[in-house]
Design brief:
Keywords: Ribonucleoprotein, Ribosomal protein. This protein has about 160 residues and is mainly beta. Helix content is about 5%, strand content about 35%. The termini are far apart.
Length: about 160
Amino acid sequence: MAKNTVTKEICTYLLGICVPSSKQNAAKIRVRRLELDKHLLMYFNKFEFVYAHDPEKLCKTGDTVLIQNLPKKLTRIITHKVIEVIYPLGDITDPITGKKVVAGQYRDDIEDNAKLFGELKSKYKYDELSKRGSMENKKDFTSKKTYMKYSDDPKDFDPYAINP
């Protein structure tokens, strides 16, 4: 008798940080894993770099993203796909309460303290300013195209180059 074998594909979700990449339609994601040192019986960080398919350009450099493995590789190096951006760079959200956080305090608490003790003119107004992207090409250069730089010349400084 012939046996019917069913293969089950395992979907693995990983959380990582987007780093600069020179690939088109793909994002380079740094995934942190913990590795056990058997002599010390302690876990230490080990970083892996994975390329994820991102044709919509969802993530920018520094964003924390959720990725999923693909059932079949798209190319030799693209093995995952970007599901969603969990936390954009610079916009910290408490995962339990869902409130925005600034330097260990909730933004609501900072505003309440400002009302109690009087607002300063130098207070940063989060509600009036737009989200990330308003300073693009002024102070935020994550949208610039990066490339691999194979020479390490201190006279030739380029912030968009990546050392391999």
